[in-house]
């Protein structure tokens, strides 16, 4: 759950290159986790992609306001999800996050 993940990040010296974060999570939701990540000085630099079944402008705006790198809506087709994950891995490995979000937004 998100609370357990957050506690691990607080304790661990390891840091992920990127966090792919759903909104609907048990114990602590994705918005709460994003907010906590972006206020923790040693975690706020980690790029976060919000990922949800929601496609509302309100959720997109909230993601931007809370400091997410970008927001994407979960695709219904597995093939599209594979493409999304391929783009994420390719650009995250290069730390090219601007291009990553541009390409993800072209898909949706």
What fraction of the residues are assigned to beta strands by DSSP? 5-15%
Low-confidence segments, given as residue ranges, are: none
Question: How many extended strands?
Answer: 3
Task: Determine the mean pLDDT.
Answer: 89
The SS-based structural class is: alpha/beta
Helix content: 40-55%
What distance lies between the first and last C-alpha atoms, to the nearest angstrom?
27 Å
How do the strands line up in the largest sheet? 1-2-3
Tell me about the biggest sheet?
Answer: 3 strands, parallel
Rg over alpha carbons: 13 Å
Total of helices: 5
Shape: globular
Topology:
Elements: H1 2-11, E1 19-22, H2 30-39, E2 48-52, H3 57-66, E3 70-73, H4 78-94, H5 97-107
Helix pairs in contact: 4-5
Can you characterise this structure?
It is built from 5 helices and 3 strands, in the order H-E-H-E-H-E-H-H. It is an alpha/beta fold. Strands 1-2-3 form a 3-stranded parallel sheet. Helix 4 packs antiparallel against helix 5 (97-107). The longest helix has 17 residues, at 78-94. The chain is globular. The N and C termini lie far apart (27 Å).
């Amino acid at each position: 759950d998100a609370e357990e993940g957050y506690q691990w990040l607080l304790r661990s010296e390891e840091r992920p290159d990127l966090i792919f974060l759903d909104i609907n999570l048990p114990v602590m939701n994705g918005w709460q986790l994003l907010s906590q990540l972006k206020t923790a000085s040693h975690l706020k630099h980690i790029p976060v992609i919000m990922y949800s079944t929601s496609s509302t402008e309100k959720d997109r705006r909230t993601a931007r306001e809370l400091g997410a790198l970008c927001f994407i809506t979960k695709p219904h087709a597995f093939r599209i999800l594979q493409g999304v994950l391929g783009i994420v891995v390719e650009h995250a490995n290069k730390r090219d996050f601007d291009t990553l979000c541009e390409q993800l937004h072209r898909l949706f």
